[in-house]
Design a protein that fits this description.
six-stranded parallel sheet
């Protein structure tokens, strides 16, 4: 696949890294020579210095032969015009743009992005994507990662195995025997900085991060079996009143009327603005690193501290301070891709990486085959994919026990006619089934092949 990426920042670099590693033909455009030099030195991509929306620059980058343009510069308008130019002059089939300003995304302006007006096929709004991820984490506080598939009927959760985890040192095969009606499958384990697919004879260890695919109505029971029975947050303190913080507070007011919300914002002007917009939240002007402000927010009796400022260091320190003051749990926004590896050791219960969330959303549209959803795990070490099986798929028509799946791939659930089926040796995949499948990075290409028309997979 030939892809032109406009923007060499964190998201652009991350997408280029993933696509180049899979032997795609990638060109990256950015107005910063420094960023282009870095990306050209470190990745197998072609770099071009210039304005991402200018026709001559797009032509140099190979837009005439491109299958896709992904515009993720810092500016919405540049991203939109780049897609328009790619469509009008170069007839690029698929156009993806990151758009942050919520004004463009309001329902009554939805015709703006139609093919007749501004032809953008996929719009990525990081604030909405990250905000929804925060809300899912608040709803399931025992999970460190929560992703939904198959019309929200299948959930993938990341669960830390603590010292008191009841299922530690128990072979996974035995878990299936103990809870035959659970409808949950352990598809991946992150241990000692390595992500792998466990065998049925493997056991979970203290400190493991287990990735479990479960039916939606069995998620809380699954968390309880792993020793996490934390109730849904009813008292929340939010640090940061930016776009994400405001989105989360507004959604909590609308969806959870019993939740008490206090929001800390460092900018007085912004604090006044969001105080006018929110109805039930208490807005405090000050720094989330000021213990006096945290005390005023009564963080010591809060269920969850959600740190959503633009500075990772503020998010980390305020989360740790809140925990020391008595807050039950914390959730931190971490932009720096190096920080998540140390998050748990620093005292962060759960974190969200906006870069990873945005890349996952874009990968859903990059993946070939009938791919409906993608979520990237551990900086691209693995992916959870939802895909639709075609008649020609090598998975269709045979019991799962007869299908020799490569190592590093595990089927977590099957969605058929509105029902979730837990995979076992007797289950036969049918055409039009939607399958949630876990794959380590080096196996993702094979997963794509499983869900394409070609029968060349094996």
């Amino acid at each position: 696949m030939k892809v032109v990426i406009c923007g060499a920042g964190q998201v652009g670099y991350g997408i280029a890294e993933r696509l180049a590693a899979e032997q795609n033909d990638v060109s990256v455009i950015d107005s910063s020579p420094k960023l282009i030099n870095v990306i050209g030195d470190q990745l197998d991509v072609r770099g071009f210095v210039g304005h991402g929306a200018h026709p001559d620059v797009l032509a140099q980058a190979g837009a005439e032969e491109a299958d896709m343009i992904i515009a993720v510069t810092l500016y919405d308008e540049v991203n939109m015009v780049a897609c328009q130019v790619a469509h009008s002059l170069f007839n690029v089939p698929t156009k993806v743009a990151r758009i942050r300003a919520q004004s463009y995304l309001q329902p009554h302006w939805q015709s703006l992005f139609s093919r007749e007006n501004m032809p953008i096929d996929v719009i990525i709004s990081p604030e909405i994507e990250v905000g929804e991820m925060v809300l899912r984490r608040l709803a399931l506080p025992g999970a460190v990662e929560t992703v939904r598939f198959a019309d929200d009927e299948i959930v993938t959760v990341g669960i830390i195995c603590e010292e008191d985890c009841p299922v530690v040192d128990t072979p996974l095969r035995q878990l299936t025997e103990l809870f035959p009606d659970l409808g949950a499958v352990v598809v991946g384990v992150f241990r000692n900085n390595k992500l792998f697919v466990p065998k049925s004879s493997d056991s979970l260890l203290v400190g493991d991060l287990a990735y479990v695919v479960a039916k939606r109505d069995q998620v809380r029971r699954t968390l309880g079996i792993f020793g996490h029975e934390e109730p849904e947050a009813s008292r929340v303190v939010i640090a940061g009143g930016g776009n994400i913080g405001l989105y989360v507070a507004r959604a909590l007011e609308q969806r959870q009327s019993n939740t008490r919300i206090k929001l800390i914002e460092a900018s007085r002007e912004r604090a006044v603005s969001i105080a006018d917009e929110l109805k039930r939240s208490v807005i405090l002007h000050g720094s989330a690193l000021d213990q006096g402000i945290l005390d005023e927010a009564d963080v010591g009796s809060a269920d969850t501290m959600v740190a959503l400022t633009n500075e990772d260091e503020v998010n980390i320190l305020s989360s740790v301070m809140a925990k020391k003051l008595g807050c039950r749990r914390n959730l931190s926004l971490l932009n720096n891709p190096s920080y998540p590896a140390f998050a748990h050791a620093l005292g962060i219960d759960a974190f969200i990486n906006p870069r990873a969330v945005t890349i996952s959303k874009i990968l859903q549209h990059v993946r070939r085959g009938r791919i409906r959803g993608v979520h990237s795990l551990q900086n691209g070490a693995a992916e959870v994919v939802e895909a639709e099986a075609l008649d020609t798929s090598p998975l269709v028509g045979r019991p799962l026990r007869e299908i020799d799946l490569p190592s590093g791939i595990r089927i977590g659930a099957v969605f058929r006619d509105g029902k979730v089926l837990t995979p076992n040796g007797d289950l036969q995949i049918q055409a039009q089934d939607r399958i949630v499948i876990f794959a380590v990075a080096e196996r993702v290409r094979q997963v794509e092949q499983m869900f394409r028309v070609s029968l060349d997979f094996f």
